[in-house]
Design brief:
Blueprint: E1 3-9, H1 23-29, H2 32-37, E2 42-48, H3 66-85, E3 89-94, H4 100-114, E4 117-123, H5 144-148, H6 154-157, E5 171-176, H7 181-190, E6 193-196, H8 197-203, H9 205-212, E7 220-227, H10 249-262, E8 265-271, H11 282-294
Parallel strand pairs: 1-2, 1-3, 3-8, 4-5, 4-7, 5-6, 7-8
């Protein structure tokens, strides 16, 4: 039986639009905890972390709000590490995607301690592989993958005690359809494995997920970093950076069900839900529906 801990991180400190700070509460309003509990999951809601307010300032030296982003990520790192040490599955309720730096660096440290392999699935419309030199905005929610791979300020790249926290080979980016020009070259040079929407269109979600999950074994910890803008905005309007042409409801369900089938899920981020841009909490309810599938909801009993 899964033992899950919900960790709220109510901040939009790394984003270019305000409102992701309300994401954790929207997920709770959509009954995330009780719905998981209905599947036999032991759920503990740890409440919300606290951190600095969003000063809403211009970028300095290529980064917006770097000290505040560092403070939030330190809090996330500590909270996720504490739950992993208790042999619980942490679900980070964001908040914007910069928080994955703290979450995943804690998971990577945990895996190193236990001698386990780590696979990270990055479900997102964006590659999030920008740097201070490449970013058009300075928003740190566009940089977490780069930071985790060692490209960024030391206050973030060193967060988990080892720089880089991850080799690019540990990552699989899925659903990508918006990459800045300089970032595109950097993704290619780094050798990131990216299953963009063209790949999904041509090969299908089943083949995509088979490839992304290939090589998992009993010694692999699987972390899913689920940016809600992964989904097509026609079904998930409540995000700050929507990009048309994302996975449909059924494609997203298949993605989650195939992850659940591995039995390897060890930690989860749910980020970039922006209730200020949503319609009657529809996007939060969809996110909860998909998370439910990650924990074994299926139409039929399957062997």
């Amino acid at each position: 039986m899964h033992r899950v801990s919900l960790i709220g991180a109510p901040t939009d400190i790394g984003a270019g639009a305000r409102g992701a700070s309300m994401g954790p509460e929207a997920l709770r309003v959509a009954n995330l905890g009780p719905i998981l509990a209905s599947h036999g999951v032991a759920v503990a809601d740890r409440g919300n972390l606290s951190g600095p307010a969003n000063p809403w300032q211009a970028a300095q030296a290529g980064y917006r709000h770097l000290p505040e982003v560092v403070a939030w990520n330190q809090a996330v790192h500590a909270a996720v590490a504490a739950e992993l040490a208790l042999d619980r599955l942490p679900i980070l309720l964001g908040g914007d995607h910069c928080l994955a730096i703290g979450s995943i660096s804690a998971v990577a440290r945990h895996c190193r301690t236990l001698g386990r392999k780590l696979r990270v699935l990055w479900l997102d419309a964006h590659a999030d592989f920008n740097t201070a030199e490449l970013t058009p905005s300075g928003n740190l929610h566009g940089m977490p993958v780069a930071c985790l791979c060692g490209h960024g300020p030391a206050t973030l790249t060193d967060l988990g005690g080892l720089n880089p926290a991850l080799p690019p080979s540990a990552l699989r980016s899925i659903g990508i359809r918006s990459v800045d020009a300089g970032e595109k070259r950097f993704v290619h040079a780094a050798g990131l494995e990216v299953f963009d929407m063209r790949y999904i269109d041509e090969m299908g979600m089943r083949h995509t997920m088979t490839q992304a999950l290939a090589g998992l074994d009993a010694q692999t910890h699987l972390h899913v970093s689920f940016d809600v803008d992964f989904l097509d905005p026609d079904i998930a309007p409540g995000v700050g950076t929507p990009v048309r042409g994302g996975p449909t409801y059924r494609e997203a369900q298949l993605c989650m069900e195939m992850i659940a089938d591995t039995g390897r899920l060890g930690s989860l981020d749910v980020v970039e839900l922006n209730p200020a841009l949503d319609v009657r909490n529809r996007t939060a309810e969809l996110a909860v529906d998909l998370i439910e599938s990650l924990f074994g909801k299926s139409t039929l009993m399957r062997d």
